[in-house]
Amino acid sequence: MLTGLILAGGRAERMGGRDKGLLPLAGEPLIAHGIRRLKPQVAEVVISANRNLETYRAQGCRVISDDPEMRFWGPLAGMLAGMRVMKTPWLLTAPCDSPLLPPDYAARMWAALTREQATAAVAMGKGRWQPVFALLSVDLREDLAAWLATGEGGVSRWLQRQQPALVDFADGPALFHNVNAPEDLARLEVEWNQGDRR
User: In angstroms, rounded to a whole number, what is the distance separating the alpha carbons of residues 16 and 53?
Assistant: First the structure.
């Protein structure tokens, strides 16, 4: 029913260009933690990456890249690439630098989407949208391709057009504990070693 897509295709400029998904946490690449948590919840986990492809393939997942004309255009380009290869009607996304996905992530996103009969769902946390945590219908593929072709805006603006179901994850803020700078990774390593892995 669901394909899981881990978004690892960015430039990571705030990390000095280091590939965020491959940064170490507790002796493993960040993306390995995300794969381990997402895999039981979906039919397949796919990685969206634009560099270090062989290293990502070593994680045991199919690896895809953005369309060459859209490379490094942001998460929407990765989402579109995922929609073009997925074998299920629904795509569940998460960024590579958020290793604390809850075991009911897919279930909660799916429940909200079906309850509201929507074609998209977006996670809410820390008082705002978290647009790279999304559940999307494959039927949105052409609309997304057209949106990217016109260059009208980023992921939040496109998702707003879809009138998504909003999924409250206020009870699990660690879901959105992502790594944007070296100090974020250092803080996460400390919390991990202290056992804070909600």
Answer: 19
